[in-house]
Write a structure and sequence with these properties.
149 residues, alpha/beta, 4 helices, 4 strands, 34% helix, globular, disordered C terminus
């Protein structure tokens, strides 16, 4: 961005950083591009992103196969304007002055791609709403929510 307005930073947090938070971060990056700084982390990160999650995102044209789960750090929370938790409970540090949202979503861990699709679609719906909220109504989100099966 060429102006002096800093980009808002959004952090997505779930337990393993292998499913929900990875999908949310990928959708926000896909739709908002360079307008938002996007991070994701987990309180107890897995060794790899859930393969069913990678496949479900690939179906909608987003490749997250190179992503790796990351550990949640205090610094990541402090650097973020909005922190969205997805089932990490009390393990997420809370700092004053940050905006926190808790998205209750099914955990895709151990699920096949058929079970991941509705979770993916709900995350996409929430991300579309979040973009207008974080960046304002002047940002257009491309595409529709319907995906070929």
């Amino acid at each position: 961005m060429s102006d002096s307005t800093p980009r808002p930073c959004v952090l997505f947090v779930c337990v393993h950083n292998a499913g929900r938070s990875q999908m949310a971060a990928a959708f926000l990056t896909h739709f908002a591009g360079e307008k938002v700084e996007v991070r994701s982390a987990g309180s107890v990160p897995a060794d790899a992103v859930n393969p069913a999650v990678v496949e479900a995102m690939h179906e909608v044209g987003i490749d997250i196969s190179a992503e790796t789960p990351k550990i949640l750090t205090t610094e990541a929370v402090q650097a973020s304007d909005v922190v969205i938790t997805m089932g990490c409970g009390d393990t997420c540090p809370v700092f004053p002055g940050k905006r926190y949202l808790d998205w209750q979503l099914d955990d895709p861990a151990g699920q096949g791609v058929d079970a991941v699709r509705p979770i993916r679609d709900e995350i996409e719906r929430r991300i579309r709403g979040l973009i207008g909220d974080v960046l304002g109504s002047d940002v257009e989100v491309p595409g529709s929510q319907s995906h070929p099966r």
